[in-house]
């Protein structure tokens, strides 16, 4: 009898006791919480407010509740952030404007730290080297045309004499008339005017783009005519004009070049660049800017003039490889 009762409970007697360690209990003999029931059936306590979802499987109840919560979130039942779309757009615009202002300030500081003057001097040296090379190239081609015209008139001696006299005379007259009509301030060497400007005297239209065009064209025509015209004085004036025009262009980025002392400080290296790109001698350009153009010389302009003149002379010599006559 005892043996049959123990088998009914799930097994034989063991060394550890008369009752088994584990016993199988079907789901039908348990309560809804998974506990064994005394009467062997599911204990349901139906409520009046419960619907047919109470008799469903727990996984079905979980899925149904999940769908219900998702519908509530879509309908606005879940808590959302306060504020309309217009306020959010205004906040985004304010944030974007603040970020843009921060980027502009950072760029301004970086330009000042990296040295805006050195960028200016590089541009000045490069521009003057290009101008000097172009003038030498055009004047060399003009001299070749002069010699070719004389050679073509070789059988007739009067025609050769006419070509030899007329060709340079036409270029000289063109140079004088062009300079007088476009900008009379471009007449002459330009060194006395630069001395006057560096001493603080304002001369009208001496550092303008019209004077630059007149000076370059007239000097090129004069050099192409074959007359002994030097480039040292005119190139000092041309480099000063380039520095003045570039300073106005660079003033878009910061207000350093808008002041009169800042512009005068940039004209001193320009004089060194004018001599350096003509003779390809940076040291001579710096000494010229010290001795000729200024009664007093700021120490900070030594390295500015030397750097700009060296860069200009280097670029001019590199470009002269393509022009053997320059």
UniProtKB/TrEMBL annotation:
GO molecular function: voltage-gated chloride channel activity
One Pfam family named in its UniProt record: Voltage_CLC
Subcellular locations according to the entry: Membrane
Highest taxon of source: Eukaryota
UniProt entry tagged with the keyword Cell cycle: no
Transmembrane segments: 118-139, 159-182, 203-223, 235-257, 264-281, 301-322
Entry GO terms, CC: membrane
Catalytic function, reaction form: bromide(in) = bromide(out); chloride(in) = chloride(out); iodide(out) = iodide(in); nitrate(in) = nitrate(out)
Record membrane topology: Multi-pass membrane protein
UniProt keyword terms in alphabetical order: CBS domain, Ion channel, Ion transport, Membrane, Repeat, Transmembrane, Transmembrane helix, Transport
Entry keyword Transport: yes
InterPro entries, sorted: Cl-channel_core, Cl_channel-1, Cl_channel_volt-gated, ClC
UniProt main location, coarse: membrane
Protein name: Chloride channel, voltage-sensitive 1
